[in-house]
Structure formats: C-alpha cells, structure tokens
Write a structure and sequence with these properties.
The protein contains 6 helices and no strands. With about 120 residues, it is an all-alpha fold. The N terminus is likely disordered. Keywords: DNA recombination.
Length: about 120
C-alpha cells in the first residue's frame, strides 16, 4: 500500500522539520473532491437517518436555531447518550468494513484502530 505525502492537503503543508512524523496525521481523501465541509453534510445526514432530534443536531453542528419550535425543546442527557451510542455504532461498523478491505493502513492512527477491531 503506498504511503501518501500530506503536502497536498489544503492549509496543512507536510514540509520542513518533523514532516515525516506530522505525516501520520494526514488523511488522504477517500473520495475525489471530498472536503471537510462535505463531511459536515454527511454527518448531518447520518444524524437525520438515526432520528436525532433537530435541536440536538443544531447543537452538535454549532448552529443557532431561531425557530419557535427550538425554543420549546431541550436537549437531555438521554438524547446526548443515544447520539453517542448511535454514532459509535456507525463508527465501529465502518471500521469493520474498512478492515475487510484491508487489515492495515500507513496512517498510524487508523492502523491502530484496525488492529483493535
């Protein structure tokens, strides 16, 4: 599996002193054109899919919601726990699927996660 340099990641050049060690924090995009903002859209869609209350979605995304409904709903500890449980379940499912594709990764953090699955 090829090791990718992270000097192509926007805003985070992998050059200069310590570049090799910083390269471990570089995650090569999994899809052409995928941006951090695009990942926010995916995250929001996942929350919709698992039925996370709108108020909690807004809170997690850092959005201020001025609707009347938002003023009458509140975030509970149980809502936050369900969100974390459901997102953790999706994360673990994704890691298992990734491990089926390849049991290792040149990215140290991902490689450690794959070994633990």
């Amino acid at each position: 599996m090829p090791v990718h340099r992270c000097d192509t990641f926007p805003g985070v050049p992998g050059r200069g002193r310590g570049a090799a060690s910083r390269g471990d924090s570089c995650w090569v995009p999994i899809a052409r054109g995928l941006t951090p903002h695009g990942l926010r859209h995916s995250h929001k869609t996942m929350m919709e899919e698992i039925g996370v209350p709108k108020k909690l979605q807004d809170d997690r995304m850092g959005h201020a919601d001025g609707s009347v409904q938002a003023r009458y709903s509140h975030i509970t500890a149980a809502m936050r726990q369900r969100l974390m449980d459901d997102l953790t379940g999706q994360w673990e499912t994704a890691l298992r699927a990734r491990k089926i594709m390849s049991s290792g990764s040149p990215v140290r953090a991902l490689d450690l996660l794959l070994r633990a699955v």
